[in-house]
Specification:
alpha/beta; 4-stranded antiparallel beta sheet; 29 helices
């Protein structure tokens, strides 16, 4: 806790007091670094596909308790200076010193501290908290603060665009500047007149969707230019805009195009050369719905679409039909999401300045146009005591410290545009949040989708925001309230009372959430009293961000508000190598649930083998829910995610970055329910993702006449009952043959693995030098063949398609059964046919062994060689008079080792997780809020 005392500084207002800081973690006279055991490590990061080195820096210095992953990510992402030069940072101390020095010096210069001693305490506490992974600033702080670059500290930006060509072109320019720096932005296009309205010249307007094309092309071009990450953007359109139907269907139509082009053989994968021909792929789309519209949906009434210039209704539509179109498009391609306009603006602290019309790309930052927000997230697991109580006072003090630092950052920060800088300095929006909620709940024996879990989450969120705003009010006494506070004072205080009232509605169930909630209530009481006296320093204080890269930096098991991804994780080891481990929170949870050590060990062993708890020895079925995860055998239901969001939303200034995941067999009605319940439960924004909705596979549907007729009207669209193959994975150890071959002097190796009960299931080809384009193409081709075989595509289909394919190298081989090949592919599939197809199947394709061809030349029937059905092919090879140089021997081949937690989940589930590959290192990414993050290198799909 802190208090204020008299102080003097040139920048401090007359009679104002500086903050008196208290120590939380540090000791007087002891530098925080001296309490840490430091060690040197080598960071070598490779692309697993070809073994090439993506990044290398040896001899870096980190605390011994930091994981290999956290070390790798911080070294490669956040250390500044050219690698191999003396200017390159090599120690975490240097990185933390670089950042904290700027915060502390700025605080001193601007009168934040009562004395130099308080400034030193602030500096030491901040260093301790960062080094011990108790919290982290968002990535732009680590990229920029203390360097020669502009001191940009914000990750979230909201732009604005008006109905003029000058404004639209300025929008393109501003987005480009933001993307160039590796950040993302959001914008509402509803001020642009619709394609159903006239221009002043008499012509018809183009409409906002047409201008989205230009912005999308710009984002697609610039996104790869940022040195830090791919850009991300959000496009919002109000539900009463006359072009809303076109907006809703935009990305769904493009998804159909992707499927058609992929089926025609074009490269439509992420980063593929042909994907650029598809539009609108660089933005998340959201429809801004009003209470009026949602009530019309509920009542089955008509809803009016209004002209932008006059506000008159120019078209009416059935609200249910429009709502159905939104759900149908989201079912097809995950877009659009929804933002609940009246709820957002009902919690708006600065309505006299302007409405909230848009959000950042992940929808957690919602505030004024032309503004930005810098983020920081707290690691909740750092406050779980050994006795499983929550360190309430430590959490309060850490929140005070972080809010103070975050507000200081706005004082020294640079911004991408003058308008954004002006608004942000005037309203000083902050975004404190947390990570590791899912791990905390499991460790304490609480199910994520339970009243107890939601009570703890709601209490922590209320405590964080109440403390943050109370500290903001104390800062207002020291350095003044935000510039826009005077005109918005009543509205701001009204929202503070709403937060406090929502806190009063939280119902606690046990000692853990009871203690947290009691302190939250005290903080809100102090907040209201202090705020009425001083005003507030910040128009916004809290939100829940994805915590992608910084979550890895803090060694968090779970990101943001998310539950645990799965019970088995991928872990990199010091000195190289990796292993699969059961989450460390599982044994702790089992202990809290009353299990003995012998039982815990048996259950953990079962989870390690199966990846889930169902039928685990000795585990009571009523405890299964504690171990429910985002993916796997017992995945949390979609409404379980929505209910958790609803529990914490009243305790946040902003919103929540989270995607509600639905299974592949979810219906359009399921999505309608999620969107509707999100409104009823008071969420501000909501996005969904149906598993595999973006996979470019045509659906085979048999429809009745009634169903076909029902699809004629938008309100009657029915989710098709799809028929999909099931993947049959090979066991970890499987019989295989290794074949060395040569085609026209080009040498290679082929490993063909079979199921134990026979049948080819996997092929890997080695051709060309490691790291070459050819080797990479063959690796990709091998994976495609293997996956298709496991999904049931017959080998004879592949043989029929690829035999006789002509390209170089072509010519003589060293295989006596296949003396000539028209290409490497021709040889490979002839060899596979000879090794794995029956004589009758091969005869139909015209593929024979040397001995079979000899019998044919002698006028004999080759089928006589196969009269005995149980004849062994190896015995046949040994009985032939021709000695084959082809090396063939049964070997036990281990399945490729997983390289990320997502791939570990795949190995246990027996199915492919719907997650993109990292464009930097090639490993499969894992969800982080509305984004994805790579555990291998820390790259994200757009959010910090």
């Amino acid at each position: 806790m802190t208090e204020t005392v008299s102080g003097s500084t040139a920048r401090r207002g007359k009679g104002r007091k500086g903050l008196k800081m208290e120590r939380i973690f540090t000791k007087p006279g002891v530098h925080p670094y001296d309490e840490v055991t430091w060690e040197r490590r080598d960071v070598v990061m490779t692309n697993w596909r070809d073994g090439s080195i993506n990044f290398e820096q040896r001899g870096v210095e980190f605390p011994a308790f930091w994981s290999v992953n956290a070390t790798n990510i911080v070294t490669s992402k956040y250390f500044r200076g050219a690698v191999g030069t003396p200017q390159r940072e090599w120690s975490l101390k240097q990185l933390v010193d670089r950042v904290v020095r700027v915060y502390a010096d700025t605080g001193r210069e601007n009168g934040y501290f009562a004395s130099e001693q308080d400034a030193e305490i602030f500096e030491h506490e901040l260093k301790y908290a960062l080094v011990h992974q108790i919290f982290s600033f968002n990535s732009p702080v680590w990229f920029n603060v203390g360097t020669s670059s502009k001191q940009q500290v914000s990750a979230c930006f909201i732009l604005s665009v008006d109905d003029t060509m000058e404004s639209i072109l300025e929008w393109y320019k501003e987005e480009g500047v933001i993307f160039k720096g590796g950040s993302g932005s959001g914008v509402n296009l509803s001020r642009i007149r619709s394609s159903k309205e006239l221009l002043s010249s008499g012509g018809t307007a183009s409409g906002p969707v047409s201008f989205m094309r230009g912005a999308d092309a710009s984002a697609g071009t610039i996104k790869s230019g940022g040195a830090t990450r791919r850009a991300a953007k959000m496009v919002v359109l109000d539900v009463d805009h006359p072009d809303v139907v076109e907006f809703i269907e935009t990305k769904a139509r493009e998804e159909d195009k992707i499927r058609a082009l992929r089926d025609a053989g074009f490269d439509m994968d992420l980063g593929g050369k042909d994907i650029v021909s598809v539009q609108y792929q660089n933005a998340n789309n959201s429809v801004r719905v009003s209470d009026e519209f949602m009530r019309a949906v509920e009542a089955g009434e008509e809803f009016g679409l209004r002209a932008r210039m006059t506000g008159e209704v120019i078209q009416t539509i059935q609200a249910k039909d429009l709502f159905r179109l939104m759900a149908k498009a989201a079912w097809e391609c995950a877009d659009p999401g929804v933002q609940y306009d009246d709820t957002i603006n009902d919690w708006h602290t600065s309505p006299e300045t302007g409405r909230i019309t848009a959000s950042n790309p992940c929808s957690e930052y919602l505030h004024l146009d032309n503004s930005s927000c810098n983020l920081a997230s707290i690691n909740l697991m750092k406050f779980l005591n050994d006795d499983d109580s929550f360190d309430v006072q430590g959490f309060v003090k850490l929140t005070e410290l972080v809010i103070t630092a975050m507000d200081i950052s706005i004082t020294f920060a640079d911004f991408p545009t003058p308008a954004i800088g002006e608004t942000t300095r005037a309203y000083r929006q902050l975004g404190i949040g947390y990570a590791n909620l899912g791990a905390l709940l499991m460790a304490t024996g609480h199910a994520y989708d339970s009243d107890g879990g939601r009570s703890i989450a709601a209490s922590i969120t209320q405590l964080m925001t109440g403390t943050a705003y109370r500290r903001s009010a104390e800062l207002a006494a020291v350095v003044g309230p935000y510039e826009g506070y005077a005109r918005n004072a009543e509205a701001h205080k009204r929202v503070m009372r709403k937060h406090a009232a929502a806190n009063d509605q939280v119902r606690t169930l046990d000692e853990v959430d009871g203690a947290i909630h009691a302190e939250a209530t005290r903080q809100w009481e102090r907040c209201l009293t202090t705020g009425d006296k001083n005003g507030y320093r910040n128009a916004q204080a809290s939100l829940l961000a994805p915590t992608g890269t910084i979550g890895l930096m803090m060694d968090c098991d779970t990101t943001g508000i998310e539950p645990d991804l799965a019970l088995v994780k991928f872990k990199k080891l010091v000195g190289g190598g990796s292993m699969q481990i059961v989450n460390l929170t599982v044994p702790r949870a089992l202990k809290n649930l009353g299990y003995q050590q012998e039982q815990i060990e048996a259950i953990v062993e079962y989870i390690s083998e199966h990846g889930h708890v169902v039928d685990a020895p000795g585990l009571k079925p009523q405890h299964y829910e504690v171990f429910d995860c985002a993916m796997g055998t017992r995945a949390i239901s979609p409404m379980g995610h929505v209910r958790m969001m609803a529990a914490v939303q009243p305790g946040l200034s902003g919103a929540i970055s989270k995607t509600v995941n639905l299974p592949e067999n979810a219906t359009i009605e399921d999505i309608e329910q999620v969107y509707f319940e999100g409104w009823k439960l008071g969420l501000k924004a909501l996005a969904i993702y149906r598993d595999n909705c973006k996979v470019g596979q045509p659906l085979s549907v048999a429809k009745s006449k009634g169903a076909a007729k029902a699809e004629e009207a938008p309100a009657a669209v029915v989710a098709p009952a799809e028929v999909r193959p099931v993947r049959r994975r090979l066991p970890k150890r499987r019989p295989a043959t290794v074949t060395r071959f040569s085609v026209a002097g080009a040498e290679g190796y082929m490993t063909a693995s079979s199921y134990p009960d026979d049948g080819l299931g996997e092929v890997f080809l080695k051709l060309g030098k490691q790291g070459s384009t050819l080797a990479g193409v063959m690796d990709a081709f091998s994976m495609a063949i293997s996956i298709s075989l496991q999904y049931g595509v017959p080998l004879e289909t592949w043989v029929e398609k690829f035999t006789n394919l002509r390209f170089e190298p072509a010519g003589m081989t060293d295989d006596p059964d296949i003396r000539m090949a028209t290409s490497v592919m021709d040889y490979i599939f002839r060899r596979l046919a000879l090794d794995h197809l029956s004589y009758d199947e091969r005869a139909g394709l015209g593929i024979f062994t040397a001995e079979e061809r000899t019998l044919q030349a002698e006028g004999k029937d080759p089928a006589t060689l196969h009269a005995e059905e149980e004849i062994d092919r190896e015995s046949l090879a040994q009985s032939t008079a021709i000695e084959k140089p082809v090396e063939k021997q049964p070997v036990a081949v281990e399945a490729p080792a997983p390289r990320s937690s997502t791939e570990v989940i795949e190995s246990h589930q027996g199915r492919t997780a719907d997650a993109p590959l990292c464009l930097t290192c090639g490993t499969k990414m894992r969800p982080a809020g509305s984004c994805y993050v790579c555990e291998g290198c820390g790259s994200t799909s757009g959010c910090s």
